């Protein structure tokens, strides 16, 4: 049988944009989700694509969608709630899997829990293959290779700038906001001396020089803590000891986010408090629109900074990439990745990162097709 691409969660905001990006590339994905009527409408919009019904919470229904060698693309966030069945189905089938998650606990579960099983079944798992966290991984990898064997640390920063009316509109989809609320009190991680170390979100704070000024960021878990040590271990930077990732979306309140991180472990242990805080967050998200404001997206610019440092803290290399809005980045990266994987496969089995799955040169070319280019 001919291998195929299956897009799970196709009728959601990110899924619809991904379906559009795929069809622009001449791909014909199977659109999958729970609502057959909505799937049929979407399929007709994109020229009569095939459809299939499946429930993201039902592993058997997702497993029925795919065979060995197929490409499964999942956009069914929040992934902590809806993502497990898809990745488990891909592992069982021996398929190639991509998803759009930005949730660090889910990323870690894919690498540590599903990765070893995928290596045994012949599956390849590429989680967080979108705005979170492919561009930063690429920037960090380019900085690492430029600095070479003297590199002891790599820091990556994610930033978004907006101007005029773009600053006032809703910049994220409801799905993204729900994912953010779901991980606020979850433990994050950093990479030190060969291993992941647990820490709260926002535990560290620093500024990056972006678009003409210093901009603050707070620490998060991401793909880079898996990808860059792997790249370094190939001989590129054998003395690498530190990988940190910073999120600069919070702007002026970044310092407050950092300071509040000290209380996060306590809140997480107090179940009534953690439930109350999560409920407040869910209530706020409930009032948000399903889709981000179009003007906000059109007026935004994303920046991704990778910095490599020597053992004494001296900066050895800096790479800054820029791109349009994050949802365009995610859709185009998923479309490129799925199409390339369908035609050429990927390198390796188990849980892969963007560099190990495609190679740095191929990833750089694919990112450029998605509009991610050097400043």
Describe this structure in words.
- The chain has 375 residues and is an alpha/beta fold.
- The chain is built from 16 helices and 16 strands.
- It has helices at 13-24, 36-45, 59-63, 79-82, 84-93, 104-121, 134-147, 174-183, 224-236, 254-260, 264-269, 271-286, 294-298, 326-344, 354-358, 360-369, and strands at 5-8, 30-33, 51-53, 71-74, 96-99, 124-126, 153-162, 188-192, 195-199, 205-210, 213-220, 242-247, 300-309, 315-323, 350-351, 373-374.
- The strands form two sheets. Strands 7, 8, 9, 10, 11, 12, 13, 14 and 16 form a nine-stranded mixed beta sheet that branches.
- Helix 1 (13-24) crosses helix 14 (326-344).
- The radius of gyration is 20 Å and the shape is globular.
- The model has no long low-confidence stretch (mean pLDDT 90).
Brief synopsis:
The protein is built from 16 helices and 16 strands. It is of the alpha/beta class. Strands 7, 8, 9, 10, 11, 12, 13, 14 and 16 form a nine-stranded mixed β-sheet that branches. A seven-stranded parallel β-sheet has the order 3-2-1-4-5-6-15, with helices on both faces.
What overall geometry do the principal axes of the alpha carbons give? Answer: globular
Low-confidence stretches: none
The average pLDDT is 90
Through-space gap between termini: 44 Å
DSSP strand count: 16
SSE-based structural type: alpha/beta
Radius of gyration: 20 Å
Continuous helix count: 16
The residue fraction in helices comes out at 40-55%
Strand content: 15-25%
Largest sheet: 9 strands, mixed
């Amino acid at each position: 049988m001919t291998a195929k691409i299956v897009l799970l969660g196709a009728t959601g905001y990110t899924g619809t944009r991904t379906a559009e990006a795929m069809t622009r590339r001449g791909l014909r994905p199977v659109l999958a989700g729970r609502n057959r009527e909505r799937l049929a409408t979407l399929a007709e919009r994109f020229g009569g694509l095939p459809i299939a019904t499946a429930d993201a919470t039902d592993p058997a229904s997702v497993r029925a969608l795919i065979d060995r060698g197929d490409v499964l693309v999942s956009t069914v966030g929040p992934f902590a709630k809806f993502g497990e069945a898809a990745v488990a189905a891909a592992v069982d089938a021996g398929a190639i899997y991509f998803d759009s998650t930005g949730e660090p606990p889910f990323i870690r579960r894919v690498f540590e829990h599903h990765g070893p099983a995928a290596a045994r079944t012949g599956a390849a798992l590429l989680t967080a293959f979108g705005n979170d966290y492919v561009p930063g991984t690429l920037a960090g990898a380019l900085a690492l290779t430029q600095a070479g064997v003297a590199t002891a640390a790599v820091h990556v920063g994610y930033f978004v700038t907006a101007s005029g009316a773009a600053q006032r509109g809703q910049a994220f989809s409801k799905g993204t906001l729900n994912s953010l609320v779901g991980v606020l009190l979850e433990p994050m991680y950093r990479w030190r001396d060969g291993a992941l170390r647990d820490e709260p979100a926002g535990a560290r704070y620093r500024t990056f020089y972006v678009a003409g000024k210093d901009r603050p960021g707070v620490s998060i878990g991401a793909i880079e803590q898996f990808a860059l040590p792997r790249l370094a271990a190939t001989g590129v930077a054998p003395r690498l000891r530190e990988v940190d990732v910073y999120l600069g979306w919070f702007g002026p309140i970044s310092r407050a986010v950092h300071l509040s991180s000290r209380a996060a472990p306590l809140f997480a242990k107090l179940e009534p408090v953690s439930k109350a805080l999560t409920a407040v967050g869910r209530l706020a998200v409930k009032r948000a629109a399903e889709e981000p404001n179009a003007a906000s997206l059109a007026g935004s610019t994303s920046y991704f900074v990778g910095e490599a440092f020597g053992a004494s803290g001296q900066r050895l290399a800096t790479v800054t990439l820029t791109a349009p809005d994050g949802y365009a980045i995610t859709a185009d990266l998923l479309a490129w990745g799925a199409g390339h994987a369908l035609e050429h496969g990927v390198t390796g089995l188990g849980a892969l990162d963007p560099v190990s799955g495609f190679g740095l040169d191929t990833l750089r070319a694919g990112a450029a097709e998605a509009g991610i280019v050097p400043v």
